[in-house]
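Propose amino acids for all 134 sites.
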């Protein structure tokens, strides 16, 4: 799942995943309120995302609040959440880790570097890491 409001970053991220060898079904959500609503409406175990890429600066409800919702919910707290954001603020980084983010990545400005970062995220979190069954 990608929770991001910037159309350019949505396009780059989805393109990077599409260019990989693994077929991924990516849900895109454009604001924090909608993200929380998505989780609240889940009824089937198989609909639970395997990974969440989350921006800090979201409209309606910010990424920190979405992160707290996910990590404070017994059903969802084992989902890896990656903050993928333009913010390099020490305050945002500390707050994210205090709320149990799995990793924090500041988006590279260069398009090529951004695409490489997404590929590495996918390689590590999809191909290497073992995640508990839902």
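Proposal:
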């Amino acid at each position: 799942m990608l929770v991001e409001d910037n159309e350019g970053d949505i396009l780059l991220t989805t393109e990077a995943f599409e260019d990989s060898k693994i077929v991924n079904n990516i849900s895109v959500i454009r604001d924090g309120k909608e993200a929380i609503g998505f989780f609240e409406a889940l009824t089937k175990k198989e609909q639970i995302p395997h990974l969440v890429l989350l921006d800090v600066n979201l409209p309606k409800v910010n990424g920190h609040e979405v992160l707290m919702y996910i990590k404070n919910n017994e059903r969802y707290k084992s989902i890896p959440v990656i903050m993928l954001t333009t913010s390099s603020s020490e305050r945002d980084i500390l707050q994210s880790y205090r709320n149990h983010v799995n990793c924090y990545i500041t988006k590279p400005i260069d398009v090529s570097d951004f695409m490489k970062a997404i590929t590495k995220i996918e390689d590590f979190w999809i191909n290497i890491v073992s995640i508990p069954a839902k």
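The two ends are 15 Å apart (CA to CA). The chain has five helices and five strands.
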